[in-house]
Write a structure and sequence with these properties.
By secondary structure, this protein is mainly β. The protein is built from one helix and nine strands. The chain is 5% helix and 68% strand. A hairpin with a 4-residue loop joins strand 4 and strand 5.
């Protein structure tokens, strides 16, 4: 299980994030993630995604479900492409994208990110560290299907 401590986002509170991968086959696994918001003392996010890896492309594609404290249940599709920066692969440049839709398929939200990731193995005995620095872009124009009809006379 991987764990991390995160700060920022929609709340300015410290969050404890955990994820576990359950293998399905050599290139596919189920990724279960959860996050605990320490300010409210309750889970703020839970997801389960089936993810398939394309090693020849250094890419992955995933589909699944997520539940968060604001949006409730949503379907999600995500993709990631990795570009090695160093020959040993410890420093990479990652491009990620995600699209979520509500359970009625009326409202969608998209986001993307670009980041550098530096992996340090055995930072301490039996403990690896990964440092990520990047930029995340959110689609703030998530308009539902009903609102689009009102705004666009051709719909």
């Amino acid at each position: 299980m991987e764990t991390s401590i995160r700060y920022g986002g929609d709340t300015k509170a410290l969050r404890i994030h955990a994820k576990e991968k359950f293998p399905i086959d050599s290139k596919t696994h189920m990724l279960v993630r959860g996050e605990l918001d320490t300010r409210i003392g309750a889970p703020s996010y839970v997801s389960a995604v089936i993810r398939h890896f394309y090693p020849d492309l250094s890419a992955s594609l995933g589909v699944g479900l997520q539940y968060d404290k604001h949006e409730k249940l949503r379907y999600t599709v995500r993709g990631k492409k990795t570009f090695p920066v160093t020959n040993d692969g410890l420093l990479t440049f990652n491009v990620k994208g995600q699209c979520d839709v509500d359970k009625e398929f009326r409202e969608r939200k998209s986001k993307g990110a670009a980041e550098f990731s530096w992996s340090i193995f055995n930072f301490q005995r039996d403990q690896d560290v990964r440092i990520k620095v990047g930029y995340e872009v959110f689609d703030k124009s998530s308009i539902s299907a009903n609102q689009r009809k009102q705004l666009d006379p051709e719909c």
